Amino acid sequence: MIKRPAxxxxxxxxDTNVLMHDPTALFRFDEHDIxxxxxxxxELDRGKKGLSEVSRNVRQVSRFLDEMLLIAEDSDAxxxxxxxxxxxxxxxxxxxxxxxxxxxxxxxxxxxxLPSHQGDNAILSVAIALQQTITDHTIILVSKDINLRxxxxxxxxxxxxxxxxxxxxxxxxxxxxxxxxxxDFWDDLNRLESWTADGQTFYQVEGDVVKDWYPNQLIFxxxxxxxxxxxxxxxxxxxxxxxLINDYRKDNHAVWGITARNREQNFALNxxxxxxxxxxxxxxxxxxxxxxxxxxxxxxxxxxxxxxxxIVMTRVTVPVGEDIGFLPGTEEEKMTPWMGALMDNLEVLNxxxxxxxxxxxxxxxxxxxxxxxxxxxxxxxxxxxxxxxxDEAQNLTSKQMKTLITRAGPGTKVVCLGNIAQIDTPYLSxxxxxxxxxxxxxxxxxxxxxxxxxxxxxxxLADYASEHL
Length: 469
Hints:
Layout: E1 11-14, H1 16-21, E2 33-36, H2 38-46, H3 53-69, H4 75-79, E3 82-84, E4 97-101, H5 119-133, E5 139-142, H6 146-154, E6 158-160, E7 178-180, E8 191-197, E9 200-206, E10 218-221, E11 228-235, E12 239-244, H7 263-273, E13 279-284, H8 290-304, E14 310-315, H9 331-335, H10 340-349, H11 355-369, E15 370-372, E16 386-391, H12 398-405, E17 413-418, H13 434-442, E18 448-453, H14 460-468
Parallel strand pairs: 1-2, 1-5, 2-4, 5-6, 7-10, 13-17, 13-18, 14-15, 14-16, 16-17
Antiparallel strand pairs: 3-4, 8-9, 9-12, 10-11, 11-12
Helix pairs in contact: 7-8, 8-10, 12-13
Organism: Methylophaga thiooxydans DMS010
Family: In the N-terminal section; belongs to the PINc/VapC protein family.
Protein name: PhoH family protein
């Protein structure tokens, strides 16, 4: 029998997958209390072995629990609840919530259709027993498992998803990286100055509209009289410096033979070719040109400009269908089947004259500059003067994304590509993806840029399929 929480508090029963997803979930419920059924501890024990991200999370949860149990002096302290420290921006204020463990066998009041020996059903039986025992406040089951939440709701148990890892309430609120100026933008400015430096045109604008701008945001005015496409270089409280961008839609500004076909692609090439922008994120549906533009910019800056010593490309290996099993060969040979997008785009970029021999010679040259690496071997590495491309980044968690980006050393540029509408990783959604996480957190940094590509440029067949299927 646990001590009843104070009036107004809620008791959250945590499912195993919540702790596997976020080990710090124990500290994310503020003043409310947490209850861990014994079956959750058993499932954590079974999942602690291995080198996967989930196994590491389980081991971290076990360490957290072990540290907190040191506070409890005897069994009475455990039955009365162990104080939980709240985590807020790295600060550890006075504990208000408590952690309770299941210490007694509870009556299993479940329908006979639900076998009690299954882990999910055992959690449901604990929730029902707590509802019958503690009647003065709400018992809430927190789980990432949709089917468990459905069964809980059917049985009259309040069930919720784990929302603390959500970056945004709605994916439509995600930063797009570009903004269209209003028709009366120039008339509403308090002050406007212009100058040129190193062949580039700059403007300093002053007005209320700049408060909503971010560094390296792309702004444009589609009107014929004041047609402008610029990038925000700096933002203060009421003024901003903007720079007119290069027009990569013209053949004389082609990047490795590739020209932009729309405004968003032109914005993307400006970010990719800018040496002052160390981190770039490109979002867009299939066929918008994310990989092609990135590879063209990488090859130009690595081979022609000698800005980087090599190109490193990686992606998470999550299959769309059934897993094909073991792949023989070296690390790069194992990753090759996952890099179909790289090979397809290299064929487009490899337009060398001279027949089959000339194309093969150019392809061999490109392969020497491009290295394919697995995510499994990234921890502990440091990449110096590399152009790193992270493909299919929507399948990465926020922690995996942090692990990859922190590998960057001096002179390295990191580009993340993805489509948050095509997430294949379990328990990740558009609002919890690592790609969404970095887009939202890097928008304030002056050396990062983001753009959402809107138009597909693959083919009329692909465009029609995207719109109608």
